[in-house]
Structures are given as C-alpha cells and as structure tokens.
C-alpha cells in the first residue's frame, strides 16, 4: 500500500485535555511538595487510590448530574459492572475507608494528590482532566476536625506562596441552610431541594439578582440562552438570598455574635439549623484560640458547595487579590479550594454512619494564582550539557557527566548527531542549559576541558556594554580533574 493511501492518526490532543511539559510539571511538583509538607506536619499520611472505580462506588454526587453515568467517563466491564474514571479523590477515599476499616486507624488522616476526570463540556480554562490535592479525616465526629482542616488549609496556602491577606478561608454549615429551607417550607423531601442547593452555589458567579431569578422564574445568561428557574415563590427566594448575604467574621466577638444572631433568625425554630450555628460557634472559638483570625478564616453564609454529599460544615478558600481577565477588566481571582463534612458517604458501603471531613485544592488554579502573583519563577534552569567532539571518545564524555551527577549536578551528554557542533549549542540553548562542556582532541591531550557559560553569554548578547561582566569570562579552560568544582562555581555565579 502506498503512503498516499495510509490513513494516519491526527497528532492532536483530545478536546478538553492538555499536555504538561517539563517546566509546568516541575512547578506543580514543587508546589505540591510544599503543601504535602504541611499536611505531613499535621499528622496526615499519603494515599494513592486507583484512577478507576465502579460507577456504583462513585455514586451520583457530581453537581448538575441526574443520570449515574453522566459527567463521568464510564464503560461497561461486563453485563453487571460499570467502571469509570474517578471524578474526585473523596469518593475513592470513602470506598477505601469502608474496605479497610478493620486495618486503618480511627480517625484516619490522609492526603492524596493526582488527576481526576469529568466528562463535561470543556471551555476556556476548563478541562476534562485536572489535578486535585485533598486532605481528609475519617472517623472524627467533632467539628474540631473541621476547624483543623481550615487551619491546615490556611497554612498550606501560605506555604505554597499565597501571602496572608491575599486569601481567606470562608466557612459555613449545610445544616444552617437546611434550617433556612425548613423555615420557608422547603422540606428535606421536596423534589426541588437539590436544584435549590445547586442554584445557591452559583451565588459567586451570578450574584444576588442572578440567584433570585434562578430560584424563581429563570434568567437569561450572557450568551443569550434562557435558564429555567426553580419556581419558588418570590418571598421564599428573597428569604434565601437574604440569608446568603449575611456574613460573620471570626475575630471581633461583638460583630461575630451579632451576625450569628442574624443567622439564628433566618432558621427560626429549626432544630437542624440551630445545631449548625452551634457548630459554627464552636469552630469560631477553636480557630480563634489557635490564632486564625479574620485575616485568615471567616464565616460566610454564601458558601454552600454544590456536591450533594456534604452534611455539616463547608468551606472554601478564596483568593482576594485582583487579576485582569481576557477583556482587560479587573476581577477577583476567586476560589481555589473547597470541602466540608460528609458523614454519610462511607455509610453507603457499610450501613453505619462514619463521620468524615476534608478539603480539595484545585491544583491548576492555585498554580495560575501563583503565576499571577509572580510567586513562581518561569526561568527553569536546564541541565549542564556535555558536548561530543569525537564519537570514539564517548566513554570519556560519559565519565564527565557521571562525575557531575555524582556531585548532584543535573547533567546530560548530547546524544544527537554530533557532526555539527553548532547544533549542539543550539540544543543546549533550547534546553536552557547554564553551562556547556567542550573537550576536543587538543583539550583531551592537555588533560583540560572548556566550560562555556551560556547564561553569561546570553546576557552579553542582550546588552551593548560589557561593564557588568568584564571581569567574568564567558568561557574558561580548566583541568579535567577540576571539572566538578569549576562547574559548581559557574553555577553559583549565575
């Protein structure tokens, strides 16, 4: 068959997915290592679960999803079982907690980091595969566990590079919202209740008026499409919106008490609503005692969380600084993490209530935030490149790179076609290499090597004057025995 008739696959990334190259992977790992150090300090252990779970195990917990397989990448393994890629790291934890409940300590503290997949419509900055970083405590019924998660999240953000004052961890309680809905006559068995919850969770995106429209008759979005409303009476919808706009700040006791009192008015005599406020008051006390005041953690009635498995305290980490959007308009960066208490998730497997609480960080969004604040360097230094002047002396070049690696210096030998030496230097430049090592026949006979400072050379090329670097040669010749020491000196200068 001729080449013209061969059907070749298109070399393109599937829609909604992306590839991550060296710098991005390195930056992500560095950030996650800092977060993991905080989690480890709090006593949490790492856990890696399978990327594939049964659809039954995952459950129906994605927001805006009514059918079991919608929103996930699923396939039928046999006539009985459907499998799917995990859509978060919490549902697999519930399965692990149930499967290994006789072996794990209780409470069980774990953190997990890895990709998740959602079969949703992709858009700008919205991908079907993305990274999450979770930390959860399973088996602790006290809201002290929730307070600890919030404190740990604040510490993790600061360790990653988000300065105090550029973020706030917002806390609420789903029981309080349940109390509000009970108070206005929307009971737990009301079929509209899940839709109401999802609508309320859009408060940050559509604002007060948008939520009011969506709770009642509907609204037209920016694209012109009309979104049907839930159908609540206007007075009931207004009561919900009034609750969402109440905010209480941890720190100033008088203000805090006044705001919590307003929340009690919103739930009336609802037992579950008042229980939620009691839990918030305890969290306020515990966090304040540890020094987490209004500049780090605050109570915010607008925090709802869209996933259906939350049963108590819920929280989000919001970055408060502004960025410029694609149209040049200033806007707040927004949320980078969220979580809460989900006491019934493990119960699906065991039939017994198992308290649990945890938080998930959106890794890609947090990385984007660090870039926006200039907290991540985009200048990633590549390896030292040992060039090849003589194919027959490859063992000598391999010896040089081995010496450098043994000294914990990142290095590689050029393994392409060595015939054109200029191409080797172009390769070193593309690799962002700081130093190129050269040894031709003359240098080998003399027992020396040439070190070419590529960073200095690039600086000289970009500037008309050499005053700043006139005492620093861009190329030096040193004895072969001094190779490692000379390279380290050159790296330290840059």
From TrEMBL:
Keyword set includes NAD? no
Which reaction equation describes what this protein catalyses?
Answer: tRNA(His) + L-histidine + ATP = L-histidyl-tRNA(His) + AMP + diphosphate + H(+)
**Matching Pfam families:** HGTP_anticodon (PF03129), tRNA-synt_His (PF13393)
| Alphabetical list of InterPro entries matching this protein | aa-tRNA-synth_II, aa-tRNA-synth_II/BPL/LPL, Anticodon-bd, Anticodon-bd_dom_sf, His-tRNA-ligase, HisRS-like_core, HisRS/HisZ, HisRS_anticodon
What keywords is this UniProt entry annotated with?
Aminoacyl-tRNA synthetase, ATP-binding, Cytoplasm, Ligase, Nucleotide-binding, Protein biosynthesis
The reply to whether Nucleotide-binding figures as a keyword in the UniProt entry is yes
Q: For this protein, what is any one GO molecular function term?
A: histidine-tRNA ligase activity
Where found, per UniProt?
Cytoplasm
The catalytic activity of this protein is classed by the Enzyme Commission as 6.1.1.21
List each copy of the Aminoacyl-transfer RNA synthetases class-II family profile domain by range. 1-383
Q: What class of enzyme is it?
A: ligase
Provide the assembly information.
Homodimer.
**What family classification does the UniProt entry report for this protein?**
Belongs to the class-II aminoacyl-tRNA synthetase family.
Q: Report what the protein is called.
A: Histidine--tRNA ligase
Organism from which the protein derives: Pseudotabrizicola sediminis
Q: Which gene encodes it?
A: hisS
């Amino acid at each position: 068959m001729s080449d013209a008739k061969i059907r070749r696959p298109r070399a393109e990334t599937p829609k909604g997915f992306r590839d991550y190259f060296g710098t991005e992977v390195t930056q992500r790992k560095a950030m996650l290592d800092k977060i993991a150090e905080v989690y480890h300090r709090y006593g949490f252990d790492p856990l890696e679960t399978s990327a594939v779970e049964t659809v039954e195990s995952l459950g129906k917990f994605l927001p805006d999803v009514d059918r079991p397989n919608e929103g996930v990448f699923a396939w039928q393994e046999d006539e009985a079982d459907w499998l799917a890629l995990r859509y978060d790291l919490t549902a697999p934890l519930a399965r692990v907690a149930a499967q290994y409940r006789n072996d794990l300590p209780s409470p069980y503290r774990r953190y997990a980091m890895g990709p998740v997949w959602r079969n949703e419509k992709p858009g700008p900055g919205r991908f079907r595969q993305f990274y999450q970083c979770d930390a959860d405590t399973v088996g602790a019924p006290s809201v002290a566990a929730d307070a600890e998660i919030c404190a740990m999240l604040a510490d993790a953000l600061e360790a990653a590079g988000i300065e105090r004052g550029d973020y706030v961890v917002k806390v609420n309680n789903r029981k309080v919202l349940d109390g509000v809905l009970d108070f206005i006559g929307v009971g737990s068995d009301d079929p509209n209740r899940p839709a109401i919850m999802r609508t309320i969770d859009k408060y940050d995106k559509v604002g007060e008026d948008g939520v009011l429209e969506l709770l009642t008759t509907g609204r037209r979005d920016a694209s012109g499409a009309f979104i049907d409303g839930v159908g609540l009476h206007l007075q009931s919808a207004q009561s919900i919106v009034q609750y969402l706009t109440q905010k209480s700040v941890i720190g100033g006791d008088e203000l805090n008490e006044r705001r919590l009192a307003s929340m009690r008015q919103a739930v009336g005599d609802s037992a579950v609503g008042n229980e939620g406020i009691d839990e918030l008051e305890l969290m306020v006390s515990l966090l304040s005692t540890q020094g987490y005041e209004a500049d780090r953690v605050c109570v915010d009635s607008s925090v709802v969380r869209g996933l259906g498995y939350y049963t108590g305290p819920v929280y989000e980490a919001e970055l408060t600084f502004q960025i410029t959007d694609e149209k040049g308009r200033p806007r707040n960066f927004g949320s980078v993490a969220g979580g809460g208490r989900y006491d019934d998730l493990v119960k699906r497997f065991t039939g017994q209530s198992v308290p649990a609480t945890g938080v998930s960080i959106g890794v890609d969004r947090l990385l984007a935030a660090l870039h926006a604040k200039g907290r991540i360097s985009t200048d990633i230094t590549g390896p030292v490149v040992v060039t090849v002047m003589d194919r027959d002396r490859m063992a000598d070049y391999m010896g040089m790179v081995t010496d450098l690696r043994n000294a914990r210096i990142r290095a590689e030998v050029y393994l392409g076609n060595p015939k054109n030496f200029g191409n080797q230097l172009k390769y070193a430049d593309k690799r962002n290499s700081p130093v190129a090592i050269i040894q031709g026949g003359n240098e080998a006979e003399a027992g020396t090597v040439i070190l070419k400072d590529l960073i200095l050379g690039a600086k000289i090329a970009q500037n008309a004057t050499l005053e700043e670097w006139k005492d620093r040669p861009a190329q030096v010749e040193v004895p072969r025995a001094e190779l490692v020491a000379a390279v380290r000196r050159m790296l330290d200068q840059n």
